[in-house]
């Protein structure tokens, strides 16, 4: 019998990782309040542009020469201060690949978006996670205590996911000054709902990076497109290590139309903010604790009833995200349109009546 060949061994950093398996099926036809997506879809203008793409366009590699200046004008930056990315995930990966070596220290608040830890682990970095405070406010002092000469990256989601809380401009500026040798990424995936941005600071802080996505307010999550911003020198370095065609033609075309349809974004964001206020009012009336949010979701503390409340919503085909594995008793609920929120509230009322407290 032939001797069995030895299997290849992955790098130690990969071997030590736990696989990341987000829910990826069984969501069709349901009220999707679990992934913080736009619950109504993308701009009709973007959809029409996608329908108009011809075979000749799809047959060639994407070109970004015209897209970058148009997006730069929209975001009020220079074309050499941004690069297109395959969603926020690639933006995170590019910052790690460009500025972090194996063994370097990466600071990440906890809980937060899982991909910060994911890409730092792939690199083999030393990951230091700093817990948000009990009231889920930003742990500035705790982060500061972990900054040392080996700190090469700090990842801040602002507003944060899943807490919905934000670091103040003063706190972010303090952190940027305190970690001059680290790439500080401020992930503004939920900017449209909060209105707070660090983009104007790029000329002041050479270690600042900002990411934006078209997956949330713009309703283009399925196309995977975003932007990474920093000063000209940083972006030149980022582009050196970036795949030349990481963002596809359809994604670029849709993004360019999406930013032109400002009325669509204003209407949707305004509706979500009103629905968020409606949901908070109802949660208070029902006696459920929740955490104030600057994003398009609310983190609700159902305590020992978290699973029961999640399942009650699921039975009515309303999907929510149980975050009890990192915040005991907490469920994250995406805020959609007002009509969707009224249906959600109706189910919450019914489910609450069946819970003994």
What do these coordinates show?
By secondary structure, the chain is an alpha/beta fold. The protein has 2 domains: 26-40 and 263-353, Aspartate Aminotransferase, domain 1; 44-260, Aspartate Aminotransferase, domain 2 (3-Layer(aba) Sandwich), CATH 3.40.640.10. The protein contains 14 helices and 13 strands. The chain has helices at 12-15, 44-51, 55-58, 67-75, 87-99, 114-123, 140-144, 169-178, 191-194, 232-240, 249-260, 262-286, 306-315, 338-353, and strands at residues 31-32, 82-85, 105-110, 126-131, 151-157, 183-187, 208-213, 226-229, 289-291, 297-301, 318-319, 321-322, 330-334. The strands form 3 sheets. It has a 7-stranded mixed sheet, covered by helices on one side. The longest helix is centred in the C-terminal third of the chain and has 25 residues, at 262-286. The model has no long low-confidence stretch (mean pLDDT 95).
Structural class: alpha/beta
Give helix and strand order, one letter per element, not per position.
HEHHHEHEHEHEHEHEEHHHEEHEEEH
The proportion of residues in beta strands is 15-25%
User: Which strand order do you get reading across the main beta sheet?
Assistant: 2-8-7-6-5-3-4
- Helical percentage: 25-40%
Mean pLDDT: 95
The assigned CATH architecture of the largest domain is 3-Layer(aba) Sandwich
Indicate the CATH topology of the largest domain: Aspartate Aminotransferase, domain 2
CATH homologous superfamily classification of the largest domain: Type I PLP-dependent aspartate aminotransferase-like (Major domain)
Q: Distance N terminus to C terminus?
A: 66 Å
Largest sheet, in brief, is:
7 strands, mixed
CATH class descriptor of the largest domain: Alpha Beta
Low-confidence stretches: none
């Amino acid at each position: 019998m032939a001797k069995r060949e030895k299997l290849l061994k992955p790098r130690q950093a990969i071997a030590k990782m736990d696989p990341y398996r987000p829910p990826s099926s069984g969501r069709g036809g349901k009220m999707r309040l679990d992934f913080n997506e736009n619950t109504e879809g993308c701009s009709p203008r973007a959809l029409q542009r996608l329908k108009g793409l011809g075979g000749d366009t799809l047959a060639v590699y994407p070109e970004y020469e015209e897209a970058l200046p148009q997006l730069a004008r929209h975001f009020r930056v220079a074309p050499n201060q941004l690069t297109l990315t395959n969603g926020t995930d690639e933006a995170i990966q590019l910052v790690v690949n460009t500025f972090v070596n194996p063994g370097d220290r990466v600071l990440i608040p906890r809980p937060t978006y899982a991909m910060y830890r994911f890409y730092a682990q792939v690199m083999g970095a030393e990951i230091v996670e700093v817990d948000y405070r009990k009231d889920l406010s930003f742990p500035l002092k705790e982060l500061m205590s972990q900054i040392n000469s080996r700190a090469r990256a700090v990842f801040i989601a602002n507003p944060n996911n899943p807490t919905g809380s934000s670091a103040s401009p003063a706190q972010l500026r303090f952190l940027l000054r305190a970690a001059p040798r680290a790439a500080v990424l401020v992930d503004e995936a939920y900017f449209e709902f909060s209105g707070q941005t660090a983009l104007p600071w790029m000329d002041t802080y050479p270690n600042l990076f900002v990411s934006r996505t078209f997956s949330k307010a713009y309703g283009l999550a399925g196309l995977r497109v975003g932007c990474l911003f920093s000063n000209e020198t940083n972006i030149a370095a980022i582009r050196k290590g970036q795949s030349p065609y990481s963002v596809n033609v359809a994604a670029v075309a849709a993004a360019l139309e999406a930013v032109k349809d400002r009325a669509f974004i204003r209407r949707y964001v305004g509706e979500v903010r009103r629905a968020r206020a409606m949901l908070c009012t109802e949660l208070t009336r029902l006696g459920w604790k929740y955490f104030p949010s600057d994003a398009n979701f609310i983190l609700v503390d159902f305590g020992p009833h978290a699973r029961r409340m999640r399942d009650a919503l699921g039975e009515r085909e309303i999907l929510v995200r149980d975050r009890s594995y990192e915040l005991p008793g907490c469920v994250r609920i995406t805020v959609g349109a007002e009509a969707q929120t009224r249906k959600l509230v109706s189910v919450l009322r019914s489910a609450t009546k069946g819970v003994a407290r």
